[in-house]
């Protein structure tokens, strides 16, 4: 009974998430769809071929979005991990104020924040270039990575590092064999969130990128607002949705696998980690 309820809940959740994507899929393969027909009169791959044309800039915008999102994910995760480590393990003076300042970007209305940040970036000469856009994406992404890494460090025992150092391990070895494995779930969740924030960021990309730096969300909005080509808009919508969904699925699978390894109740030698021999 419990298994059936679990399956039914999972099916309903999948339907809830997938239902809004169904019109996109139909439009992306629609050749001719004239009102009042409920379904297209014929199907075609014309919109997909059109999206691959150089003048549409879809491939270039996808590459720009991926580059910005990956850069933001790695940088924001590293900075968030360092900030969380200091706040949780070393408890500096005025830690509450520091935490409030780090989380401030999610407390301020996005438009007010974007206008203020744009002014700073223009004066600093960082506008209209990918480096400036990557830097500004850190503003909304960093609070989420700090929050996630604070949760990761909340159960982290610093004595594991001290014990490894006492046994002669170098700082690099401690980082590689103690810190990173213990914080792997939090790091993965943090990087995933930062990637998603950067991938979907529109307002700050427009203001700081100045239309010179074109990402996939910008191209999607411009096509939806001005082209009237609904099939091409649907293709761009699918291309915008697919990477976050894929990343979320891969992250969930990795987190499930990591949890299964750390909670493995099987004491047999075959289940031990590579290179580690379990004693009876």
For the structure shown, list the relevant keywords:
2 strands; mainly alpha; two-stranded antiparallel ribbon; 280 residues; globular
Quaternary state of the chains: single chain
Strand order of the largest sheet: 1-2
Beta-strand segment tally: 2
Shape: globular
Point out poorly predicted stretches: 269-280
Strand residues, percent = under 5%
H/E series = HHEEHHHHHHHHHH
- Measured distance between first and last alpha carbons: 39 Å
Roughly how much helix do the residues carry, as a percent range?
over 70%
Q: What average pLDDT do the residues reach?
A: 86
> What count of helical segments does DSSP give?
12
Sheet/helix structural class: mainly alpha
**Describe the biggest sheet?**
2 strands, antiparallel
Q: Roughly how many Å is the radius of gyration?
A: 23 Å
Provide an overview of this structure.
It is globular, with a radius of gyration of 23 Å. The two termini are 39 Å apart. It is an all-alpha fold and 280 residues long. Helix 2 crosses helix 12 (230-262). The longest helix has 33 residues, at 58-90. 72% of the residues lie in helices and 2% in strands. The protein has helices spanning 2-18, 21-28, 46-51, 58-90, 95-103, 110-123, 130-154, 159-166, 171-200, 203-209, 216-226, 230-262; strands spanning 30-32, 42-43. It has a two-stranded antiparallel ribbon with strand order 1-2.
């Amino acid at each position: 009974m419990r298994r059936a309820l679990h399956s039914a809940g999972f099916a309903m959740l999948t339907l809830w998430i997938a239902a809004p994507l169904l019109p996109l899929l139909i439009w992306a393969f629609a050749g001719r769809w004239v009102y009042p027909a409920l379904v297209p009169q014929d199907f075609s791959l014309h919109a997909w071929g059109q999206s691959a044309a150089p003048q549409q800039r879809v491939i270039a915008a996808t590459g720009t979005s991926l580059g910005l999102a990956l850069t933001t994910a790695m940088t924001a995760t590293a900075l968030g991990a360092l900030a969380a480590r200091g706040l949780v393990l070393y408890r500096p003076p005025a830690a509450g104020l520091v935490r409030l300042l780090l989380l401030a970007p999610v407390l301020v209305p996005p438009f007010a924040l974007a206008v203020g940040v744009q002014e700073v970036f223009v004066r600093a000469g960082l506008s209209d270039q990918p480096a400036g856009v990557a830097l500004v994406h850190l503003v909304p992404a960093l609070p989420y990575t700090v929050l996630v890494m604070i949760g990761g460090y909340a159960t982290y025992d610093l004595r594991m590092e001290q014990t490894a150092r006492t046994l002669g391990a170098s700082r690099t070895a401690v980082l590689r064999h103690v810190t990173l494995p213990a914080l792997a779930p939090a790091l993965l969740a943090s990087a995933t969130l930062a990637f998603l924030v950067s991938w979907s960021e529109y307002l700050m990309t427009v203001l700081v990128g100045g239309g010179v730096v074109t990402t996939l969300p910008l191209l999607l909005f411009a096509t939806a607002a001005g082209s009237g080509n609904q099939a091409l808009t649907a293709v761009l919508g699918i291309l915008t949705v697919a990477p976050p969904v894929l990343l979320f699925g891969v992250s969930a699978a990795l987190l499930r696998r990591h949890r299964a390894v750390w909670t493995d109740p099987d004491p047999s030698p075959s289940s031990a980690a590579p290179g580690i021999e379990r004693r009876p």
